[in-house]
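Example for tutorial group B:
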C-alpha cells in the first residue's frame, strides 16, 4: 500500500523523568503554537535576561588555517553590541523589511550584526562567494539590498560589482576606501549604552511584510542562484524541531562546525565555542588544536560533517586515547561510512551520537543513533543507507513524479508549480519501493526569494498551506517507518536500456575494499564511469572491484584527489567528475568489461 510517514511521537532522548516529560510537553506545545508575527530574536533576549553573565560566544579568529587568537563575550555584552548596532541602523535610515548583505568570517561582531538586523525587522542576506562573480551579481540583483556588511578584503573591490555602488557599505574588520568602519561607527554610541547589569537590551520589531528573516543564496546546479527564504516563523519551527531531536541541558558548551547552529545555541542559552578550523576547508583541520581547545573550554557537545570528524578520529586513534568529556555528538552533511561510525563510537565513548539527515530547506528530516546505523549495515541485500526515524511533526513521502519536468515547466504558468498534488497522489510509492524523497512541515521552507522558477521546480503546494519540498534525494520507507537513502535523482547511472543504478550504497562497498580511499560512480553519455582514489595500481584491484560492479562496460579512471564540495569537504562533486569525463582530465583511464555470466 502507498505510504506516507508522519512522526507525531517523540524520540527517547532524555531520561524518563517528570522533568523530561514536562520538557517534551512544552516543546510539543511550542511547535504547534502559532508563531506568526513574533520576532525570532525573542528567544536570545530571554536567555540573555536569564543569564547575562553566561558565556555566549568564544570564537577563534582564523586567517585560513592559522589562528590569530580568540574573542569572547557574555550574553549581556552581546546584547550591548546588538543594541548599539540597532541605533546605527536607525541613524542610517534603514527600514524594516529592507535587506542587508552580510559576508564575513565568524566573529562576535558577525553574530551581533545578524541579531541586530533580525531584531530590527531587517532581512539578513547571505551570499556564497564561491559561486563566482556572475552569479553573485545575479543574487544581488534578486535581493535588491540597501547595505552590505563585509570584510575589508572584499569591500576594497566593490567598484568591480556595479550592484554594490549605491549601497551603504560597512567594513566589519578594517577601514577601507569607500566603506565605513563598523567599529568606529559603533564607538559613537558607547555613551548612550549603559552597563551590562543595567539591562540595556535590544528592542524587537514586528517581522516585516512577508515575514522575511534570513535569505541564503547558493549557486545551485544551473541557472540563477537560489535564495533559501527563512522567515521568523520557519526559524521558530526549526529551532523547536532541532531542540527536540537534539535536547540540551542548562549550561552546556557546544562546539558546532556549522556556523548557522550558533543562532540555535543562543536561543537555547548555551555557550558556543567554535572550533579552531578554516570553515572553507574543514577537512584540513588541525585536529590536535581543536581537541586541545575542547579540553580547555569544557566542551560537551560537538557537530560537523564526515570529513571533519574523520580528521578528529584519526588524531585520537593515533594518540590511542579517547575524549570522554563529549556527551553529545551529531554528524551530518554527507553520507557516513561504517568505518567512521565505528571510530566515532570508539573515540567518543560517552557521546549520545547520532546521524542527522536534512537540507538547507528542511532541517531536520530524520535522525538515528550510530549504533543503529552500524546494525543496519549488517543487513544483507539492502542497497541503501539508513537515515533513521522521521523528525517530529514532519511528513515524509516517497514518490515517483513525472520524469519530464522541463516539459511540464514549459506548459505551466511562470508562478505555478508544474507538479501538483494530483501527481503526488498518483506517484506515491509502496513500503520498500524506491522513489524521490518529499518532505513537509512547518520548519520546511516554503519558497525561494523572488525565484518562481526554483519554486516551480522544487516546491509542490499542499491544501493545508504547507509545501512538499522535493529534496532531490532518492530512498524508501521500511515497514517500521524508517527512512533509507539510496542516492540522488540526478546521479543515477544508466545501465543498459532498462536498469538505473543509484551509486551511494555501492560506493560505500567499494570504499571498504583494501587499497581504495574513495570511489565515485557516474554516468556520462551512455557510458558508466568508475573514478577511484587508491593506493595500488588498478590491475591489483581489478578482481575485487569487478566482483562488486554490475555487469557492463566500465570506464575506470584513477585520480590523485576526489573532488568534493566546498562547504563540508565531504560530498563528491559529481558535476565536476562529468566534466572530467568529457575532457579526459584523469591520470589513467582503462576499460573493463563484466559479463552477465560473471555477475555477482
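The residue assignment follows.
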Amino acid at each position: 500500500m502507498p505510504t506516507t510517514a508522519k512522526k507525531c511521537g517523540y524520540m527517547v532522548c532524555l531520561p524518563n523523568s517528570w522533568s523530561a516529560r514536562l520538557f517534551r510537553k512544552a516543546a510539543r506545545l511550542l511547535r504547534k503554537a502559532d508563531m506568526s508575527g513574533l520576532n525570532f530574536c525573542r528567544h536570545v533576549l530571554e536567555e540573555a535576561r536569564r543569564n547575562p553573565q553566561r558565556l555566549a560566544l568564544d570564537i577563534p579568529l582564523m586567517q585560513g588555517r592559522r589562528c590569530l587568537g580568540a574573542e569572547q563575550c557574555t550574553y549581556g555584552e552581546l546584547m550591548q553590541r546588538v543594541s548599539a548596532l540597532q541605533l546605527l541602523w536607525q541613524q542610517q535610515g534603514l527600514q524594516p523589511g529592507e535587506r542587508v548583505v552580510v559576508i564575513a568570517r565568524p566573529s562576535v561582531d558577525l553574530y551581533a550584526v545578524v541579531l541586530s538586523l533580525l531584531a530590527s525587522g531587517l532581512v539578513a542576506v547571505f551570499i556564497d562567494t564561491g559561486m563566482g562573480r556572475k552569479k553573485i551579481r545575479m543574487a544581488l540583483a534578486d535581493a535588491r539590498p540597501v547595505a552590505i556588511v563585509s570584510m575589508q578584503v572584499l569591500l576594497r573591490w566593490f567598484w568591480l560589482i556595479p550592484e554594490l555602488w549605491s549601497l551603504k557599505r560597512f567594513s566589519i574588520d578594517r577601514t577601507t576606501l569607500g566603506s565605513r568602519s563598523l567599529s568606529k561607527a559603533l564607538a559613537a554610541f558607547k555613551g548612550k549604552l549603559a552597563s551590562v547589569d543595567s539591562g540595556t537590551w535590544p528592542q524587537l520589531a514586528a517581522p516585516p511584510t512577508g515575514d522575511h528573516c534570513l535569505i541564503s543564496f547558493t549557486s545551485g546546479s544551473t541557472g540563477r542562484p537560489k535564495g533559501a527564504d527563512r522567515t521568523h516563523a520557519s526559524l521558530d519551527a526549526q529551532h523547536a524541531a532541532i531542540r527536540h531531536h537534539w535536547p540540551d541541558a542548562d549550561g552546556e558548551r557546544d562546539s558546532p562546525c556549522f556556523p548557522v547552529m550558533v543562532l540555535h545555541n543562543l536561543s537555547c542559552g548555551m555557550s558556543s565555542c567554535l572550533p579552531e578550523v578554516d570553515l572553507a576547508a574543514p577537512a584540513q583541520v588541525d585536529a590536535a588544536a581543536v581537541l586541545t581547545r575542547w579540553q580547555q573550554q569544557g566542551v560537551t557537545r560537538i557537530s560537523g560533517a564526515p570529513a571533519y570528524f574523520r580528521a578528529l578520529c584519526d588524531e585520537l586513534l593515533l594518540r590511542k586515547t579517547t575524549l570522554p568529556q563529549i556527551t553529545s555528538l551529531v554528524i551530518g552533511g554527507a553520507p557516513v561510512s561504517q568505518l567512521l561510525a565505528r571510530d566515532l563510537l570508539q573515540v567518543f565513548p560517552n557521546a549520545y551520537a547520532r546521524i542527522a539527515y536534512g537540507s538547507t530547506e528542511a532541517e531536520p528530516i530524520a535522525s538515528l543513533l550510530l549504533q543503529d546505523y552500524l546494525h543496519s549495515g549488517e543487513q544483507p541485500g539492502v542497497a541503501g543507507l539508513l537515515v533513521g526515524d522521521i523528525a517530529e511533526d514532519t511528513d515524509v513521502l516517497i514518490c515517483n513524479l513525472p520524469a519530464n519536468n522541463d516539459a511540464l515547466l514549459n506548459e505551466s504558468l511562470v508562478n505555478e508549480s508544474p507538479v501538483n498534488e494530483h501527481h503526488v497522489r498518483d506517484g506515491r510509492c509502496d513500503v520498500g519501493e524506491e522513489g524521490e524523497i518529499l518532505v513537509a512541515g512547518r520548519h520546511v521552507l516554503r519558497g525561494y526569494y523572488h525565484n518562481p522558477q526554483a519554486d516551480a521546480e522544487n516546491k509542490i503546494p499542499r491544501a493545508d498551506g504547507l509545501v512538499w519540498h522535493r529534496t532531490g534525494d532518492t530512498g524508501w520507507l521500511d515497514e517500521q517507518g524508517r527512512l533509507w537513502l539510496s542516492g540522488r535523482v540526478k546521479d543515477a547511472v544508466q545501465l543498459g536500456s532498462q536498469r538505473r543504478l543509484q551509486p551511494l550504497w555501492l560506493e560505500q562497498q567499494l570504499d571498504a575494499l583494501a587499497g581504495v580511499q574513495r570511489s565515485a560512480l557516474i554516468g556520462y553519455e551512455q557510458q558508466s564511469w568508475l573514478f577511484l582514489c587508491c593506493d595500488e595500481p588498478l590491475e591489483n584491484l581489478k578482481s575485487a572491484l569487478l566482483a562488486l560492479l554490475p555487469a557492463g562496460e566500465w570506464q575506470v579512471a584513477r585520480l590523485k584527489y576526489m573532488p568534493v564540495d566546498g562547504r563540508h569537504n565531504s560530498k563528491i562533486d559529481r558535476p565536476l567528475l562529468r566534466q572530467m569525463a568529457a575532457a579526459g582530465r584523469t591520470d589513467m583511464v582503462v576499460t573493463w568489461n563484466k559479463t552477465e555470466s560473471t555477475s555477482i
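The two ends are 31 Å apart (CA to CA). Compare this with the pattern of hydrophobic and polar residues in the output above.
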